[in-house]
Write a structure and sequence with these properties.
By secondary structure, this protein is α+β, with helices and mostly antiparallel strands. It contains 18 helices and 32 strands.
């Protein structure tokens, strides 16, 4: 339980650095990418402002917060940071996922192949933008930028005296010239100082070469340069040493900053190429600027049981759409999915609010009755099409018919950090866990996992749900505190800082009495609908407490008298927030981290990449995993990696569902005062003893078979797993329904997927692969975002590496960070 003493003691703690992964003295792919995005976005914002007759003031320093303020879009700081994090993480993970593919790194003199990867990658980004698939475009952009940036560190372009980007790299019609052929020696041996190990003939003739790299074999052609570093086996044979400039400690580390600066300029050039193809507004949407709300998503039951409320539902949705128009909370897309007892879909997605309203207003009820509906199938369709961190609202009068989709829905919610709210228009009189209808327990489980609400309403009370819809999709909404108590615990204490406005409590319970106590000692009970602290609105099972605008800073307390299950969520509007991803840290071939698109492991450390968003003065002091039921705290250690990012390592793993808690301070720029703050993740997370691993290899070619190997592992040999796979576009797909692990504890399977021959390039396909123990005691998943493209083919070496005799060992080493 978070008490005043608990909060105050935590605020005095400082984190301990448990490990060193990324040096702040060297440039990384992440900070090169971030700097280039901020610089190019500032240039685009300046142009847009000039076209509107407005003055753009170049920020100094240039940060996420200062840029969005200068772009007259301060509320989009979170969405810009989210876009940068997505691009940067996809950039970084190329080092791990394509460790055996030299063309992804311009290694082994694979210039022609790497050049094709770049051209195909840029083309894929552009076609994804044409389809308005911004999240997919960000993922593809990150991967493409990695290859581009590696050229300047792994080749001898800088050693040849160049201090500007090689324009041929991103020009589809220009070749890469004067490459050293396989029979041409390029390097001398070196041991301590490798600065001058490239042969003078190579430098004089301006021939391009790059270092050879291999984790396993020491083979390379006679006389060739190695990449270098302790992970590179080729650097131990003549000519020894290496030529990479990845860090200051690299063989050519003296040129590290020069190579990084040119890579940054090349990144800006590639971004400019995308800008010219997409236009300024689409470029800013790609970067999350201007429209800060990801998407407005509605999933609506159109069975005849909704006949008496469908008109009011459409009215509420139209009202919300109009209230967002032209504001900072205008969404980047509008999504609508309908369902009844036998059908779901189609998916309607548009960026035009008038088109969306026309579609909504044309809804009518037909088919079905008062039995279970295909609600989860429709929800799955909306989740698969929505951008990350979107808020979804599902209206229904019936229980779910397709309950088997629960795990798939939870997989997407956890991975993409969606919030799902259920508005239930038909309730019974039984009592269970705060809901009047026990069959709605499934909806509560999903809402709780996502940080959403289950609201039971009548037709007359439906307009009151508008408050939930309005507040939940606000771009500057933050979660300050959240718990799920079972059995009920009376005292709930939390810290509210002075930046918070529109403080709101959401209490879900069948019936309860509560008292709110402010930091000044003022109090208000649940019987006071309009009291000294604010307004209390009751919508059947939900109490909404709206505090006065001038929120008091300090420790607030809410005392609930209830022996039953209840949930409490405290939100407000503030610029101070955080983003996070579960990641795996790796040391080879270069130190970095890759995002985990599954549940984190139950047996070992959990690592998070935490990104602070606010005034650029926020600093986390304590980051913890907090168990939802009793607020047991598992504190992590922090490492500052620069640019507002922190790696957090938690060594004691929760056994039950947990939230992410951040306690920190905002350093004042004008006084010595520091403002403490508390923030919490909206959604619930859980660990698993099962590991599911799959790596997307290339893209889906229309009409062609796409083969995706995957592995399932648990620290138990001869284990049986139930396998389920689904793709968002319902493309033809086959996969094993079960797998049995061998003596090494690893089972290997394959998903075969075929996109139709008329599939459009730039289309995004969300694929989930789930593995569960018989009986449902444990499960895990991997969520992949695949692109349809006519240009990029799967990486042959990746597929082969998973199918050769050493496949199980290879995957196990990757999973356990031993290579």
């Amino acid at each position: 339980m978070v008490t005043q003493l608990f909060l105050l003691s935590f605020m005095t703690q400082m984190s301990v650095h448990a490990f060193s992964v990324i040096s702040l003295s060297s440039n990384t792919h992440q900070n090169i990418t971030m700097a280039a995005i901020l610089q190019k976005s500032a240039e685009v914002c300046s142009t847009v402002a000039s076209q509107k007759g407005l003055k753009f003031v170049q920020p100094n320093p240039l940060t996420v917060v200062s840029l969005t303020a200068a772009c007259l879009s301060p509320a989009s700081a979170v969405s810009l940071m989210s876009a940068i994090v997505t691009i940067s993480l996809n950039n970084a993970q190329v080092d791990l996922r394509h460790v055996f593919d030299p063309e992804y790194h311009f290694d082994n003199e694979r210039f022609v192949q790497a050049h094709k990867l770049l051209k195909d990658g840029v083309s894929a980004v552009k076609t994804s933008l044409l389809q308005k698939n911004y999240h997919l475009a960000r993922q593809l952009l990150g991967k493409t930028l990695h290859t581009l940036q590696d050229f300047y560190s792994h080749s001898n372009w800088i050693e040849l005296g160049n201090r500007s980007p090689y324009q041929s790299l991103i020009q589809a019609n220009l070749p890469i010239d004067n490459i050293a052929d396989v029979n041409t020696p390029t390097c001398n041996s070196c041991v301590d100082n490798c600065t001058d190990n490239i042969l003078q003939t190579i430098l004089t003739q301006k021939k391009l070469t790059s270092g050879y790299f291999d984790l396993i074999s020491s083979y390379k052609p006679f006389g060739k340069c190695s990449h270098g570093g302790r992970a590179d086996r080729t650097s131990s044979v003549e000519p020894k040493g290496g030529i990479n400039k990845d860090s200051l400690s690299s063989p050519h580390g003296s040129l590290h900053f020069v190579a990084a600066d040119v890579a940054k300029a090349a990144t800006r050039d590639l971004l400019q190429d995308i800008r010219e193809a997409a236009g300024d507004r689409e470029f800013l949407r790609l970067m999350g600027i201007l429209q800060s709300s990801p998407a407005l998503c509605f999933v609506i039951d159109t069975a005849v049981s909704m006949a008496n409320v469908i008109t009011e539902v459409t009215r509420v949705i139209s009202f919300i759409t109009d209230s967002r128009r032209g504001t900072m909370n205008e969404p980047s897309a509008y999504i609508l999915v309908t369902f009844n007892d036998s059908e779901f879909g189609p998916l309607n997605k548009t960026t035009d609010p008038d088109v969306f309203k026309a579609t909504v207003n044309a809804l009518s009820t037909s088919g079905g009755g008062y039995g279970p509906e295909m609600s989860l199938s429709a929800l799955w369709l909306a989740l698969a099409a929505a951008p990350a961190r979107s808020t979804i609202f599902l209206f229904t009068s019936a229980e779910a018919k397709d309950v088997e989709l629960k795990s798939t829905v939870l997989a997407l919610i956890e991975t993409m950090k969606f919030q799902v709210n259920f508005i239930l228009t038909s309730a019974l009189s039984n009592t269970r866990k705060g809901l009047s209808n026990p069959v709605n327990q499934l909806y509560e489980d999903i809402a709780l996992a996502s940080g959403g609400e289950v609201i039971e309403v009548t037709k007359e009370l439906l307009p009151n749900a508008t408050i939930i819809l309005s507040n939940s999709s606000n771009s500057v909404l933050v979660t300050i505190f959240q718990v799920a108590r079972n059995p009920g615990i009376a005292e709930n204490s939390f810290l509210v800082d002075s930046t918070v406005r529109n403080l709101t409590f959401y209490i879900t319970a069948n019936s309860t009495n509560f008292t709110i106590i402010s930091p000044s000692g003022q109090s208000q009970t649940s019987q006071e609908a309009n009291g000294p602290l604010g307004l209390i609105l009751t919508v059947r099972n939900l109490y909404i407490v709206q505090l006065e605008n001038s929120t008091q800073a300090g420790i607030w307390m809410l005392i609930i008298k209830s022996s039953q299950f209840y949930t409490l969520k405290v939100t407000g509007q503030s610029a101070t927030n955080f983003l996070f991803d579960f990641v795996t840290v790796f040391q080879n071939p270069h130190p970095g981290y890759t995002v985990i698109n599954s549940r984190p492991p139950a047996d070992g450390n959990i690592t998070l990449l935490l990104s602070m968003v606010g005034s650029d003065l926020e600093k986390p002091l304590v980051v913890a995993l907090v168990e939802a039921s009793d607020f047991t705290v598992h504190t992590g250690s922090l490492q500052d990696t620069g640019d507002g990012d922190y790696l957090v390592t938690v060594s004691t793993v929760p056994k039950r569902e947990f939230y992410i808690l951040v306690l920190g301070q905002t350093n004042s720029s004008s006084t010595s005062d520091n403002i403490p703050f508390q923030r919490q993740s909206s959604g619930l997370y859980r660990t698993s003893n099962i590991t599911v691993t799959a790596v997307e290899n290339g893209t889906l070619a229309p009409g062609a078979l796409y083969t995706l190997p995957f592995t399932v592992e648990m620290r138990s040999t001869w284990q049986n797993y139930i396998i389920t796979a689904r793709n968002s576009l319902q493309y033809k797909m086959t996969f094993p329904s079960s797998l049995t692990a061998g003596g090494d504890g690893i089972a290997i399977g394959t998903v075969n997927l075929t996109a139709p021959s008329n599939a459009t390039s730039g289309t995004e396909v969300i694929l989930t692969i789930e593995a569960a123990l018989p009986g449902g005691n444990d499960s895990n998943y991997v969520v992949l975002s695949l692109a349809v493209s006519r240009g990029v083919v799967p990486s042959a070496s990746l597929v082969l590496s998973l199918w050769l005799s050493g496949a199980a060992l290879f995957v196990s080493l990757l999973i356990n960070n031993q290579i």
